[in-house]
Amino acid sequence: MKRLWFAIIFLALTAALCTGEQKYIECFYRDMNESITAAETALKNNDEAKYKNEIKRLEKQWNTKNDLLYAVGEHALLDGIALQIRAMPYGKGEETKELHSLRAQLYAYYENEKISLANIF
Questions:
Q1: Among 43, 45, 58, 103, which residue is least crowded by beta carbons within 10 Å?
Q2: CA distance 105 to 102
Q3: pLDDT of residue 120
Q4: Cβ(86)–Cβ(56) below 8 Å
């Protein structure tokens, strides 16, 4: 009977950790996506200062959350995101393309880390 209680507690703890991880990744994706949208809006309005502030906000969000993401996520995708964030240009005419690329990488990471049957099997 003691082993049964241990197994139940272990399963409950595992479920709680998985739920927490999913919420953390979802929050990370949502926050980064909002910053990318704000940066795109700043580019459309030719607001260089706001664009640079949004890029700094992206970098800050990344630096705040990347340690835990590396602990639970696939490193290859996270390395691509890190490189993309650190290489954000301004004044080269490729800002929108780079933001779209970053959004695509974030979406790929988000989809890859979601709990679904396709990701389990």
A1: 45
A2: 5
A3: 67
A4: no
Dihedral (Cα; 110, 111, 112, 116), 10-degree rounding? 120
pLDDT single digits (tens) 11-31: 999 999 989 999 999 999 999
Give me the half-sphere count of Cα atoms (radius 13 Å) on the Cβ side of residue 121. Answer: 2
- Consecutive H or E run containing 73: none
CA-to-CA dists, residue 33 to 1, 30, 99, 112, angstroms: 48, 5, 10, 16
Residue 115 near residue 80 (C-beta atoms within 8 A):
no
| Range scoring the smallest mean pLDDT among 3-17, 62-76, 78-92 | 78-92
